[in-house]
């Protein structure tokens, strides 16, 4: 199997992606010794919650008032029961699971999954509620204003969810949009970028309540488990970057510094962004000698990732794509959609043959310390790396 580069050794944080490139840090990467420079940007951090649910065919959700809800540190039983109602309404309306994730994430942002009354809306506090808000005349799970219905209607979780889905389904191409854009088309929020940070946890909630439904992809109007790849996107918002089996694995005994996995593929195979995100880096990585010779095939021991791309995703995840055959098709600061082509498979840098070296990092940390095994990570999101199961 072709050999690819090792991961950076030092740990630092990535900041707000809206700022310009603000500085560089020398980090060890690729081959265990080649220095390359990663831009130091900032960003919100989200905790990663392990989710190992199996994906079944039914995806039924139980909203029995007396039933037991899954345990989650972020949300209590009443909030998860509201999420279950949102999902159940989506099922009844035959909305694909991607819509459930969008709806749950939206309610997480708008009300923290609480059915809120409003201190300025007459009569709302006399309706069963889980807190009091004060945003204009907004009430309920989705903080819907008067135009969405009566106070009683908007404070019915079932009604509120149904109205959200009705408007979402009228948005052309909603299922191919980023979550934050689709949610904004419905909500018209003053903070349109706020929804994205809830996508990962919303997916975990949908998985926990509906049998792994966020791990499905729509194929011929049917939700199919664990088959998102390239241009097909799972309800979680993730997809495998290329088709192909995993060869050299993550931090194996023989390669403890190998911070990702190698996926074999022919030269010039299209590489797809694994999820919607902002490009942090897209350039040639210097080899051990400091040369930027990425337009030729590399060799074992050369060092460096060759032509490579780093993308920052919601939740503070970073994906890395190494050894491209030519200059990437994206540039730093660019917003890319899940499944968008970002480059072509090659063998540049520390490599003995054409393949994609793919990494996933958490906590916005692009160094070795932030690296995690991408095989279970991608499988949990319904986008398994072929041959990795």
Radius of gyration, in Å, reads: 22 Å
In DSSP terms (H or I, runs of 4 or more residues), the helix count works out at 7
Global mean pLDDT: 85
Query: What assembly state would you assign to the polypeptide chains in this entry?
Result: single chain
Assign an overall shape.
Answer: elongated
How many beta-strand runs?
A: 15
How far apart are the termini?
A: 18 Å
Low-confidence stretches: 6-52
Features:
single chain, 389 residues, alpha+beta, 7-stranded antiparallel β-sheet, two-stranded antiparallel ribbon, 7 helices, 15 strands, 19% helix, 18% strand
Structure description:
The chain has 389 residues and is of the alpha+beta class. It contains seven helices and 15 strands. The strands form five sheets. Strands 7, 9, 10, 11, 12, 14 and 15 form a seven-stranded antiparallel sheet that branches. A hairpin with a 2-residue loop joins strand 5 and strand 6. Helix 1 runs antiparallel to helix 2 (97-111), helix 1 crosses helix 4 and helix 2 packs across helix 5 (179-187). The longest helix is centred in the first third of the chain and has 16 residues, at 77-92.
Strand and helix layout:
Elements: E1 24-29, E2 34-39, H1 77-92, H2 97-111, E3 117-118, E4 132-133, H3 151-154, H4 157-169, H5 179-187, H6 199-209, E5 216-219, E6 222-225, E7 261-264, E8 270-272, E9 277-284, E10 307-313, E11 317-324, E12 335-336, E13 341-344, E14 355-361, E15 371-372, H7 374-380
Parallel strand pairs: 3-4
Antiparallel strand pairs: 1-2, 5-6, 7-14, 8-13, 9-10, 9-12, 10-11, 11-14, 14-15
């Amino acid at each position: 199997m072709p050999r690819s580069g090792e991961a950076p050794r030092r740990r630092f944080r990535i900041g707000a992606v809206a700022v310009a490139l603000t500085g560089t840090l020398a980090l060890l990467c690729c081959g265990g010794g080649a220095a390359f420079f990663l831009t130091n940007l900032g960003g919100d951090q989200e905790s990663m919650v392990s989710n190992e649910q199996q994906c079944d065919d039914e995806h039924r959700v139980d909203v029995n008032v007396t039933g037991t809800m899954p345990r989650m540190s972020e949300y209590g039983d009443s909030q998860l029961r509201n999420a279950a109602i949102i999902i159940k309404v989506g099922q009844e309306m035959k909305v694909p699971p991607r819509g459930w994730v969008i709806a749950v994430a939206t309610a997480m942002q708008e009300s923290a999954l609480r059915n809120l009354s409003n201190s300025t809306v007459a009569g709302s506090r006399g309706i069963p509620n889980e807190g009091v808000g004060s945003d204009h005349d907004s009430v309920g799970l989705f903080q819907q204003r008067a135009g969405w219905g009566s106070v009683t209607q908007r404070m019915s979780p079932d009604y509120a969810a149904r109205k959200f889905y009705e408007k979402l389904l009228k948005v052309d191409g909603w299922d191919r949009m980023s979550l934050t854009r689709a949610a904004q088309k419905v909500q018209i929020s003053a903070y349109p970028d706020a929804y994205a940070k809830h996508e990962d946890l919303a997916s975990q909630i949908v998985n926990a309540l509906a049998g792994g439904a966020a791990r499905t992809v729509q194929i011929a109007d049917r939700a199919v488990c664990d088959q998102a790849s390239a241009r097909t996107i799972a309800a979680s918002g993730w997809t495998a970057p290329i088709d192909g089996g995993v060869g050299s694995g993550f931090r194996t005994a023989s390669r403890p510094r190998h911070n990702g996995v190698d996926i074999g593929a022919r030269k010039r195979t299209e590489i797809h962004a694994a999820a919607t995100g902002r490009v942090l880096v897209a350039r040639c990585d210097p080899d051990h000698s400091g040369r930027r010779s990425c337009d030729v095939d590399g060799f074992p021991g050369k060092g460096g990732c060759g032509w490579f791309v780093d993308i920052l995703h919601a939740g503070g995840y970073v994906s890395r794509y190494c050894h491209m055959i030519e200059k990437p098709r994206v540039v730093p600061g660019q917003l890319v959609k899940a499944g968008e082509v970002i480059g072509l498979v090659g063998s540049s840098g520390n490599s003995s043959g054409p393949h994609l070296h793919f990494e996933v990092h958490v906590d916005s940390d692009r160094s070795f310390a932030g690296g995690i095994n991408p095989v279970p990570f991608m499988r949990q999101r319904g986008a398994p790396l072929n041959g990795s199961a």
